[in-house]
Design brief:
Layout (H helix, E strand, L loop, with lengths): L1 E6 L2 E3 L5 E9 L6 E7 L6 E6 L6 E3 L7 E6 L4 E6 L8 E8 L16 E2 L3 E5 L2
């Protein structure tokens, strides 16, 4: 079993920045991929970003390209999402995700490959 705990959510204005963190614990010895999804109220969960175990491979959703950066620190088993120049939008919950197979090429089209989810951290737009 793997546990994912997100942090870093909060209040932000359009154009502002925020950094989310997700710490993995438990069975973390495999070369897993990690990433983020976002879900606004009444909307489906959407892909935001993903990163491979080595960090050499990254993938971003079309709506966040250029403004977000995903990174990870395997020594801390933690993945980060730096969000800059946030666009005005409704409040959303950001969910951390983990794929034990380590690949990220399917993250933008399906969540069937996701083995574990975090509880989510809320980002509230105060614009």
């Amino acid at each position: 079993q793997v546990q994912l705990v997100e942090s870093g959510g909060g209040l932000v204005q359009a154009g502002g920045s925020l950094r989310l963190s997700c710490a993995a614990s438990g069975r973390t010895f495999s070369r897993y991929a990690m990433g983020w999804f976002r879900q606004a109220p009444g909307k489906e969960r959407k892909f935001v970003a993903a990163i491979t175990w080595s960090g050499s491979g990254t993938s971003y959703g079309d709506s966040v390209k250029g403004g977000f950066t995903i990174s990870r620190d395997n020594a801390k088993t933690t993945v980060y999402l730096q969000m800059n120049s946030l666009k005005p939008e409704k409040t959303a919950v950001y969910y951390c995700a983990l794929d034990l197979n380590g690949a990220i090429d399917l993250w933008s089209v399906t969540t069937m490959n996701i083995n574990y989810w975090g509880q989510g951290t809320r980002v509230t737009d105060t614009s």
